[in-house]
Amino acid sequence: MITPAPGLRPRGGEQNPAYVLLSLPSPTAAMGQASRAFRISATRQEQLLALLHTLGLDAHAAGGPGAQAAALAPLEEALTHSSAGRASNHEQLEFLGDAVLRLAATEFLERRHPSLAVGQRSSLRAQLVSDRWLAEQAEALDLAAALHLGPMALGDGSGRATVLAECCEALVGAIYRIWGGSNGGLEAVLRWLGPAWETTSAELLADPDRHNWKSALQEWTQGQGIGLPHYHCNEVSRRHGDPRRFHAQVLWGAEGESAAQAEGWGGSRREAEQQAASAALQKLRRSPGWPGAR
User: Fold this and answer.
1) Among 61, 64, 130, 252, who pairs with 229 as Cys (CB 3.0-4.6 Å)?
2) Domain at 213-285: CATH architecture
3) Is 17-206 a domain of CATH 3.50.50.60?
4) DSSP labels for 237-256?
5) Predicted local distance difference test score (pLDDT) of residue 158
6) Arithmetic mean of pLDDT, 79-101
């Protein structure tokens, strides 16, 4: 997700992340600005250092920022959601993190999967930098426990994934900045995200549909000349965070009761429909008519 940076929008066009990267203050100046905006207690400093350790980063290692409050201030900024109502919040670092994340994912794929075609890399990268993936990483880190949130964000269970993705992306920007920006920041981000990307890319490369099962099912039905699949989704639970909150059914082929169908559940309508499409593809691949089926 991208939050526009005030004053950096070129005339007559969309903001260019690379332009913003080159236009940002130096890491030293940025840290000084952030240190004036935040007062970080000794307890909070320890919490931030523990978070860095969880990311696989050592603040005291060569090239690291050290443990002083001024050096850690960008982390505090990244973990302060705009809903908290503070003068400085995650938005600027989220914007930086968006550009850094794409560059880091591109570099990761260049190093680890150089034989992939450009189209395959593009498809894989889209998954590695998606809001869903960021929210999953934030959940794995228990990032919510370290965030400063306003009352509305605290009470909005349905928007939890969005908040986590935003602050995780801001954290990418913070790591890049405090590890030196263009002088070492990208390597720090890769040290953090590389292992998780290894796992995710292996799963995605083993899945011919790259986890985008709705698109794969649609391509198949259109290739068979039977039109588009139809989805019916219902909310079956009112509990926020329920992984089976929505139930989706997908139908394709013949009309009426004779139509082929499959179902899935998810915490959102989109996830439930994706799971239904995944179930449909599994069913189709077991059928005699599927190419390569035995």
Assistant:
1) 252
2) 2-Layer Sandwich (3.30)
3) no
4) ---TT-TTSEEEEEEESSSG
5) 62
6) 94
pLDDT at 271 > cutoff 60: yes
More confident residue, 89 or 268: 89
Report the pLDDT value the prediction gives residue 117, as an integer from 0 to 100: 92
pLDDT of residue 21: 44
- Every domain of the chain and the residues it spans: 17-206, 213-285
User: What are the φ/ψ torsions at residue 231 (nearest 5 degrees)?
Assistant: -110, 140
- SS3 of residue 186 by DSSP: helix
Q: What is d(CA 242, CA 245) in angstroms, rounded to the nearest whole number?
A: 5
Structure-model confidence comparison of residues 257 and 196, the more confident one:
196
Angle between helices 91-112 and 160-178 (to 10 degrees): 80
Would the CATH topology of 17-206 be identical to that of 213-285? no
- Calpha distance 101→81 (Å, rounded): 19
What is the distance between the alpha carbons of residues 223 and 216, in angstroms, rounded to a whole number? 11
Residues in the chain: 294
User: Which residue carries 């691949």 as its tokens?
Assistant: 285
Contact 269, 250 (CB under 8 A): no
The amino acid at residue 164 is: L
Residues identified as active-site? 98, 169
**Beta carbons within 10 angstroms of residue 235's beta carbon:** 12
